[in-house]
Amino acid sequence: MRENAVNENMSQINKSHNLVLLIMTVSCFGAIFEAISQGWELWVVPLIAMGIIACWFFHITHFREPTFRENFYIIFAMLTSFYHGVHPSSFFDIVIISILVLITAAVMGKIIFMRLVFLEFVILMIGQIAYSIINKTVVYDSLTVSRIMLHFGAEALVYRSLEVLYEFAVYSEKLFATLKKREEAGKEGMEDFLVNISHELRTPVNVINGMSTLILKKETRDDVKSIRDAGLRLSHQIEDIQDYSEIQRGDALLEEEKYMITSVLNDIVMGFNIMSIKKDIEFIIDLDPTVPAMMKGDAKKLKKILTHLIDNAFKYTRDGGVCLKVTGIRRDYGFNLIIEVTDTGVGMSEKDREKISKGNYQTNKKRNRSTGGIGLGLSLVYGFARLMGGFVTIESTKGRGTTLRVSVVQEVLDPAPCLSAATKRFIGIAFHVTPERFKVSQVREFYKSMATNMAMGLRLNLYSAPNLSELKRLVETGSITHVFMGGYEYQQDPQYFDALSKSEITVTVAADKGFATNEGSHVVIMPKPLYGYPCVKILNGDTEVSDLLVGEEEKELKLDGIRALIVDDEPMNLVVATGLFREYKMIIDTADSGKEALHKYDTNEYDVVFMDHMMPEMDGVEAMKKMRFIADQKGENLKIIALTANAISGAREMFLREGFDGFISKPININDFERVMTRVMLDGKSGHSGGAR
């Protein structure tokens, strides 16, 4: 047992060193490239190259003890960072290298070095500022000053967040060592701890996500985008911890409300586009058009089920594709919604399937992902499905892919089909997909099934065109009004398709971001993944690219002139919320306590108040009730929305029951914000002339 623990510890150290050296290698190559291109001291370049080679040599040969190697890695990284940062042309890039070095120090648990890296960043920035002022190399306008402040803020926030995570990791190690001796006696306490710590981590994660989003609104930067994406992943992991703990304790609750299945799928698509799923893996969504347009259920947990199933499929698929199929069966008691995710990945053994079916299977830490298996996400899928009164089935063969099927009953509010062709004119669709483009034949079947199910559900004429000559023959018959194909097919004869697009035939290409047609072409580019909703919009005559992934209920939200008060005892939360909400042209005011909020509302007029829950002296619920009393005396219909990191199951119902008009959890999700504001503000508009429209 002890030997296994030692081996597992060494394995974890090697994994962390692999990650550290990968980050260092990328950073060093960047520094070398910039040194050569900028003509810096070239004699340093071979030293950097030899240094990174030495790091890898020490790592591969396990030279000396791990502590010696870790100290060497960090010191070398700091020297490289200093060399890069002392040059004037690196003024606005210092934060990138510094954050990377901070991450390497945090991964290895070197808190002292983290502080030294942060100090190095401050010294370099002060030196750069002093140099630029003396030599007048930088014009200090408002944009430059704000960028510098954002860089300082980003560095400080990342440092503090990593420090909190480090402290959490240290504390967790000690706590887990104690709990290991108690086993079942400490199980309930651990679950409570995980819920509480996930709640506490929401505040720094909200700040990281919000600040990076604000930076990206001012300038497009890949490094900031990476920080934003990492923050999103971390926030999802925090939610997973909380959800898993609630399921284990039996505290998970359903939060049912009306939703549109097209809106749920749109959020899934947009989320996976942001997180940049594997580009070499095909992603197809097969949505049955006859699924009811409006249903009632827990849409949030439904999204989590979809996200975990798709994420799991991509994780274990190296070649081929992933197909999400959404269909169902109408019953007297409601609609039996069926979600099916099929991949062409590594598959699972019968033993793995048995463990999963019991709901107690988790990933083996020693297992390499390429050998198969399932992680924590599937435990959540089982838990959510059972909570909804549904079930999960698995079909899998080792080495030949997996199909996971979730079935849950939903109440039907609007039985109309979720997709329909609005036009009465004849529609003939040519589906032009060449078989040879797919290395895995199953992907071709995914596309064929998606197109067939869409055409049958919409009652349209569908023609298969497996090659260009067959497509031309179909076009010549005059029975084709629309052509759907991929970027590969378009590239086979772009001149022909450009000419065809200028006729009465609508030509659509489903392609990855960055794909472009020839100048003057009328070909419609539809963002991947290919699925029914944007296809139907094109069939109905909407060919604007920007509209193809936005549902009717999610068009641009107008909140011009809405007067809002944000109440939160955490200053950075106020900064983030203010920055995000001002994008909607709202008039923002802030308060850092319940008492200040009451004073401000007594002397000012607001249309909506965003209230934090956990605040000292007076919590959000008490402040809301006192604010309601003042509003009644003033004869105003004030809207109060809970904006809090308290996102446990049933939190939304609890806040609504207490008297709040809406609920938004932290980290702030823009889609959730817009939906709550649409329901709260637009369904009950403010009286003043500048209100929501």
Name a few traits of the molecule.
disordered C terminus; alpha/beta; Rossmann fold; 8-stranded mixed β-sheet; single chain; Heat Shock Protein 90
What do you see in this structure?
The protein is an alpha/beta fold. It folds into four domains: about 10-250, no CATH class; about 255-415, Heat Shock Protein 90 (2-Layer Sandwich); about 430-555, Rossmann fold (3-Layer(aba) Sandwich), CATH 3.40.50; about 565-680, Response regulator (Rossmann fold, 3-Layer(aba) Sandwich). It has helices at about 1-40, 45-60, 65-85, 95-105, 110-135, 140-180, 185-220, 220-250, 260-275, 300-315, 350-355, 375-385, 440-460, 470-475, 485-490, 495-500, 530-540, 570-580, 595-605, 620-635, 650-660, 670-680, and strands spanning about 255-260, 280-285, 290-295, 320-330, 335-345, 390-395, 400-415, 430, 460-465, 480-485, 505-510, 525, 530, 565, 585-590, 610, 640-645, 660-665. The strands form three sheets. Strands 1, 2, 3, 4, 5, 6, 7 and 13 form an eight-stranded mixed β-sheet that branches. α13 (about 440-460) links the parallel β8 (about 430) and β9 (about 460-465). The longest helix has about 40 residues, at about 140-180. Mean pLDDT is about 80; it is low at about 1-5, about 360-375, about 550-555 and about 685-693.
